[in-house]
Design brief:
By secondary structure, the protein is α/β, with parallel strands linked by helices. The protein folds into 3 domains: 2-157, P-loop containing nucleotide triphosphate hydrolases (Rossmann fold); 164-328, Arc Repressor Mutant, subunit A, CATH 1.10.10; 332-456, Trna Endonuclease, Chain: A, domain 1. Helix content is 46%, strand content 18%. The chain is built from 21 helices and 12 strands. It has a 5-stranded parallel sheet, sandwiched between helices. A 5-stranded mixed sheet has the order 8-9-10-11-12. A two-stranded antiparallel ribbon has the order 6-7. It is globular and about 80 Å long.
Length: 459
């Protein structure tokens, strides 16, 4: 199945735990659509297991009904979680969307504590708790305040797939089309499985459909996580349109900055938004920017949400997205370049990275009268006092003078970066969509770190 492309490590971990002769208490979580349930069910193929998808009401009764389907003796058992698990000894029990049980009655945490402490010892029982509400799984199940703290034998936070794994989903696609797809779907298997190539033709057809998942998916996701959906939508739309500071978001949605902070915290907890601080700022710095972590969310709020009315009327023209998509992919490509540099840093940089990220600063003596500047990507290594500066451009370079212009600007801005300025060793480079072999080779001979999309497939 497509969804298990490059899930080998996760599958290996689960299968090893399920083979063990000891009892296991596994916690698996991650945002919706990342492929948790399918991964778990793949790991228990051809095994004797109970699978229960929790709801917000009457879970004990519904769980009993599932168990009766496996063995009729459950019909006569006392309605009690501990009793049920005693009668499921040596089986694999999967509770999906465990946060729904907590929402119904948070005493379930103490119930499961008793089960783990009193029922599991001496058995081969495997319990798998799975959940999409990341904040609840971390605060109620995994945190030191939880009755279940310290009892798990393994935990796995499932993450979206990497860009390098996209080729397995779309073997006939060019690298550029893969970036276009990644900018839309991120590495989320649920979305990737829906897409067909050519990408633009599929997208146009889906948007026109009455049952289009592109139109309806975000409402489903947000209502699953939040009550005040309209405020969250306003914040996400602001960020999607480049309003990354709290003051800018506040101006966009017309709320005070103090009113926005709790919403941003919740968006971070759900893995929808990430907090970004300049590489040389302290982690708790107020000079913080916020970015949508999930490409699908960002795409939707950038292109679908503002156009919902004309999409519903059937008069939306996909060329509107195509015209702005290269600009949109700039931020997507920055993320890909950072991931690429991390994976290939030993070969590219020749030193171990101490820290990596973007840098924003202010100077009164900048060229052209500007007092703010940003460097897309900086990586440095404390051991060798080495630092590398990169500009990231989702564009094709056809002329050497254009490349030199970017490099010279980068060299100028590097002077304003406050890190071991007197004794550091500097490197400069560019990540771009496309650079001719001749230009790339010429700049590399001069010691510059020059890479384009073709280089990404080597790692």
């Amino acid at each position: 199945m497509k969804i298990f492309v490059n899930r080998k490590e996760e599958l290996k971990i689960l299968k090893e735990r399920l083979k063990s002769s000891a009892p296991e208490f596994l916690v698996i979580y991650g945002r919706r659509r990342v492929g948790k349930t399918a991964l778990i069910l793949e790991s228990v193929k051809n095994k004797n297991y109970i699978y229960y998808l929790a709801t917000e009401r009457k879970n004990l009764e519904k769980f009993k009904e599932i168990c009766i389907q496996k063995t009729e003796k459950f019909a006569d058992l006392k309605d009690n979680w501990e009793v049920y698990f005693k009668n499921l000894k040596n089986k694999i029990i999967i509770i999906d969307e465990f946060p729904n049980l907590i929402k119904e009655d948070d005493s379930i945490l103490s119930e499961f504590q008793k089960i783990v402490d009193l029922v599991l010892p001496g058995s081969k029982t495997k319990i798998i708790l799975c959940g999409s509400r990341i904040s609840i799984m971390e605060s109620k199940v995994l945190s030191y305040k939880s009755p279940l703290y310290g009892r798990r034998t393994s935990q796995l936070k499932l993450k979206p797939m990497k860009f390098q794994q996209m080729k397995a989903f779309f073997p006939k696609s060019s690298l550029e089309e893969l970036v276009q797809i990644y900018g839309f779907a991120d590495g989320l298997p649920f979305y990737l499985e829906k897409i067909e190539t050519p990408f633009w033709k599929w997208l146009e057809n889906d948007i026109k459909r009455e049952d289009s998942f592109v139109r309806t998916e975000i409402d489903f996701l947000l209502r699953y996580e939040f009550k005040d959906v309209s405020t969250y939508k306003g914040i996400l739309e602001a960020i999607a349109f480049g309003k990354t500071k709290i003051s800018e978001i506040k101006d966009w949605i017309k709320l005070k900055a103090t009113d926005i902070t709790p919403y941003l915290k919740n968006l971070i907890l759900t893995d929808f938004v990430e907090r970004d601080v300049s590489i040389f700022e302290k982690p708790k710095s107020r000079k913080t920017r916020y970015y949508i972590k999930d490409n699908f969310l960002r795409f939707w709020f950038r292109f679908i949400y503002p156009n919902l009315s004309i999409i519903e009327e059937g008069i939306f023209n996909l060329n509107k997205i195509k015209k702005e998509y290269n600009q949109y992919l700039g931020l997507v490509f920055e993320k890909l370049a950072k991931d690429f540099l991390i994976s290939a840093h030993k070969k590219i940089l020749g030193f171990e990275i101490t820290k990596i990220g973007r840098h924003c600063g202010k100077r009164q003596d900048l060229p052209q009268g500007k007092n703010e500047f940003e460097i897309d990507l900086i990586a440095y290594g404390e051991d060798k006092k080495q630092i590398a500066f990169f500009e990231i451009k989702w564009q094709e370079f056809k002329k050497e003078r254009d490349m030199f212009g970017v490099i010279k600007k980068l060299e100028t801005l590097s002077q304003f970066v406050p890190w071991k300025n007197k004794d550091r060793k500097e490197s400069f480079g560019i990540f771009a969509k496309k650079i001719s072999k001749e230009i790339k080779a010429n700049f590399r001979r001069q010691g510059y770190l020059i890479y384009d999309l073709k280089d990404f497939k080597e790692f």
